[in-house]
Amino acid sequence: MITKKRNLFLYFVLFLILILSIVGHLFSGQIAISFSDYWDSIFHFDPENTNQLIAREFRIPRLTMAIIAGAGLSISGMLMQTLFNNPLAGPYVLGINSGSSLFVAFTMMTGLSFFQSDFGIITSALIGALVFGFIILGFSLFVKSHISLLLIGLMLGSFTGALISVLQTFSSAQELKSFTIWTMGSLQHVQLNQLPIISIIFILGIGLSLFLIKPLNVLVLGEKSSEILGIHIKTIRIATISITAIFAGIITAFCGPIAFVGLAVPNIVRTVFKTQSHGKLIIGNLLIGATFLVISDAVIQYLEQWIQLPINAFTSIIGAPLLILIVLKRLK
Amino acid sequence: MIRFNKCEIGYKSVLIRIPELNLSAGTIYALIGANGSGKSTLLNTIINKKSLLGGELFIDSKNHTTFSAKDLAQKIAYVESKFDGVEYLTVEEYISLGRTPYTDAFGRLGEKDNQAILKAMEILNLHSFKEKFTLNLSDGERQLVAIARALAQTTPIIILDEPTAFLDYGNRIKLIQLLSKIALEEQKCIVFSSHDIDLCLNSSIQMLIVNQQNKTMELCPSAISKKEVLANGFGIKC
Hints:
The complex is a heterodimer of chains A (332) and B (238). Chain A has 332 residues and is mostly helical.
C-alpha cells in the first residue's frame, strides 16, 4: 500500500516535470513567442502573423515529436530489455534503428519517386526495423550470452553503416546531403500535416503494448517458467519485436537515428519505480522518456543561437556515460 | 491423478520405461535415480516440455497432449531447482504470477486470485516478508517463495526438479516435511526428484526408482530398505 501511494506521488511529480519541461521547450527558442501566439496559432490561426506561423509550423510539431520520440523509444527499449532479459538491450544497440536507417538510405538514394513520399519513408523505416528486429531475434535463439547478443547488434550496426557508405558512393550530391542531415537526427523536420499519422501510429503502439503487460510480467522469470505458466513465448516474441519495430521505425523515419534514449530511460525508470510490473513501467517510460527528450531538445533549441547541435550527438553525450555507469553498477 | 500407460521417455534413445503407473492425489513421491538416468527428462515430459517417445500419459484421465498450455498450467505447477530472484520483483508480486493461467488479458487479479495468493503465503508463513525483493532473499527463503508461487497456481499436481539441491541439511529436512504436509492437507499430488534417499526413507515418502539395469521406473513399497534402493537405483551392492 505504501508503494502504491509512493508510485502515485511519483507519477504526479513526473507529470509536473513533464509539463514544466514542455513549457520550457516552448519558450526556449531564439524567437520569443508569447503564450497568446501559441494559443492563437492553434485556435485562431492567422497565416500573416510570423510568430503564429513559426509556432504552428515549427515549434509545435517539434515539441510533439520530442514527446512521441522520447516516450516511444523508451517504451521500445523497455520491451527489448524484458524480452532479451538484458538491461543493456535497446532498439539502438540491437541494431533495429540501423535497419531503419539502411532501408531509409536505400529509398532516399535510389531516386524512385514512390519512396520519396512520407508513406514511402515510413514504410521503408518500418520494414527495416522489422527485418533487423527479426534478425536479432533469430540470433537470440542461438546466442544465450547477453554480451554476445549486444556485440552482434553492434556488428549489425557497423555492417549497415558500411552498406550505407557503399550506397552513398552511388548517390547524387543532393541525395547525399539530405541523407547526411537525416542521420544526424533531428526533431525539426517534422511538418504539421505529418503529425496525425505519427500520433496515430504512436497511440496504436502504446495500445498494443498494453496487451504485452501480462506476458512481460511473467517473462522476467525466464522463458521456461513463462511457458509452464501458459504463456506462448513465440507469439510474445513476435509481438514484442513488431511493436518495437513500429515505434523505432516511425521515430527513425522522421527524426533519424536517436541513440541511447531507448537504453538509458528504461533503466532509470526501473531504478526510480523499483518494480517489475510492466503496467507501471510503461507509464514511467512514457513520462520520463518524453521529459528526457523534451528537455534535451529544449537545451539544443536554446543553444541554437550559438551552435547547431544534432539531437543524436546530444543524447549520445549524455547516454554513453550513463551506459558505462549502468555496466559498472551491474559488475559490482 | 497422473497415469502412465506403456510410456517411453527419453531424448533420442529411451531412458525410462514405465509400463503402468498411477500417481494419486494426497501423496508425495520422490523420484530417485542416478545422474543421467532421465529424471529431469521425465519431469519435463509430465509438464509437456518434451514429448513421449511412446505410450500415453493421462492427467485427470485426459491425454496430456490434448491440453492447451493454459489448461495444463491450471493442472500442473512446476518449481525449478533454483529460483535466482529478479531485481525489484517483490515476494508478493512473484507469488501472484502463479495466477497467470487464470487472469484476464491484462493480468488483473480478481477476488479469487487474491484469496489464492493469501492462502499460499499463509501456508508457507511468508506474510512478514511479502514486500521484500526476491533478489534479496536467502536460497532457502527463495525456495519457499517458489513453492508458494506454485501453491498460488492452485493446481492438483506440483512437480519439483531437485528442490533440495541448493539447500543446507536443515532446510532440506524442513522442505521435505513441508511438502509432505502440503500433499496431505491440500490433497495434492506432488512429485519431486531428489538425491536425499535417507531423508525420504526417514519421512517414509513413497519412492519412484529408476532401475539402472532394465531402465524401468517403478513405485517402491514403502517398507523398502536403503540397501534395496541403492541396488535398484544405482547398481551398488552392499
